[in-house]
Amino acid sequence: LNRLETFISTVRGKSMKKWVESIAKIIRRKKQAHANGISHNITFESPPPPIEWHISRQLETFDLMTLHPIEIARQLTLLESDLYRAVQPSELVGSVWTKEDKEMNSPNLLKMIRHTTNLTLWFEKCIVEMENFEERVAVLSRII
């Protein structure tokens, strides 16, 4: 942070003033949080609750219908929280995730987008694999 703050103090020019002030403000907040001992890391005081099984207890045979909806929500929340927290503000500015160098400029946002796409495809697969209407309704209810 100190090196960044030193660099930012050397940047001059009207066109950069807004960005420099914004970055300097973020640096001050991060330094203040660090000085106060505030951490943005998530820690838990107790171990996670046991897996909520709905039908099957065998890891090899679990799927959308064998896990309890609460467990599905827990696992998706943990995964998506990590993906969301990794996205940096610079990955969102100016639609950089749509440009040619998107892999370099928005790697975390692209991971999050790919995860969402893959999850949607998996949900679709789960619905289509069901043999009758009632089973498809059950799968759709589980997803929602």
From TrEMBL:
Keywords on record: Guanine-nucleotide releasing factor
Keyword Transcription regulation: no
Transmembrane regions: none
Keyword field contains NAD: no
InterPro entries found in the cross-reference section: Ras-like_GEF, Ras_GEF_dom_sf, RASGEF_cat_dom, RASGEF_cat_dom_sf
Annotated Ras-GEF domain residues: 68-144
GO terms assigned for molecular function: guanyl-nucleotide exchange factor activity
GO cellular component: plasma membrane
GO biological process: Ras protein signal transduction
Superkingdom to which the source organism belongs: Eukaryota
PROSITE patterns for the chain: RASGEF_CAT
Protein name from the UniProt record: Ras-GEF domain-containing protein
Native organism taxonomy: Eukaryota, Metazoa, Chordata, Craniata, Vertebrata
